[in-house]
Amino acid sequence: MNELVISNVIIISNPFVDRFNEGGPFFMSLILLCLLLSIFLLIKGFINLKKDMAKTEKMLRLTVDSSLLGLVLGFLGSVIGLISAFDSVEAMGNPKPAMFAGGLKVSLLTATFGLFTFVIARIGILVLRWFVNVEKLE
Fold first, then answer.
1. Residue 21: CB atoms within 10 Å
2. Phi and psi of 6, rounded to 5°?
């Protein structure tokens, strides 16, 4: 029983979970779904590499689309976060610089996670394309 409580505390106090929640759970969850979908599609593409080249290329195109969607969602979340941060500044009049910097940091977390999603998927796309080209040459 204690292990369960300890593991829950570890998960809750994890810095990655804290950043995820700070970035806004809605946009961060959508970006996470794009990352997981990209990884799933890449794995499916690698599995079908020897069996069905058309299906592999379809998975490749879908991975490109899902990675771009994650990137765009990250920037959309960032822009919405910046708008809400500037709304808060406007409402307060003259905020402290630390408060303003905190709002900017939160708004950039979604863009960072979107970029991370895009880079991870893009690396997988490059590797899968390389394998597809090698397979076509054989």
1. 12
2. -65, -45
How many angstroms separate the most distant Cα atoms in the chain? 67
Which amino acid does the sequence have at 5? V
Contact (CB, 8 A) for 121 and 52 = no
**Pairwise CA distance, residues 127 & 60, whole Å:** 11
Q: Is the pLDDT of residue 2 over 70?
A: no
- Could you identify the residue written with the tokens 């379809």? 58
**Secondary structure (3-state) at 24:** coil
Q: How many other C-beta atoms are found inside a 10 Å radius of the C-beta of residue 24?
A: 19
* Mean of all residue pLDDT scores within the chain: 84
CA dihedral for 63, 124, 126, 41, sign (positive or negative) = negative
Q: What is the pTM of this model?
A: 0.81
Phi and psi for 12 in degrees, rounded to 5?
-70, -35
